[in-house]
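Study the following:
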Amino acid sequence: MSTMLHLHDVVISVQDAATDVIAAPNPGNIAPPGSDKILTILGWVKWIVTAVAVGGAMFIGAKMAIAHRRGDDTNTSALGWWLAGCVLLGVGPQLVDALT
């Protein structure tokens, strides 16, 4: 019984230490001088990627409509790849933000 109490105390102390590390303030939130130019470029890239994604959806939709009219359904995998790309592009910044 005594060993169980000690193990419980160890688990609680490890949990408290992990909580303190996770909840510690992140000193990296202050942007360095000149970072506004980098953020401007990243904003442009984000806009271009969004425009390409919308254009890609329209292109794939047109190809699927033409293929459907011909009785073919070979372009459905392209829609899946497009969706996977959009998910990666949408989730990527959040993953990087969570890791930093």
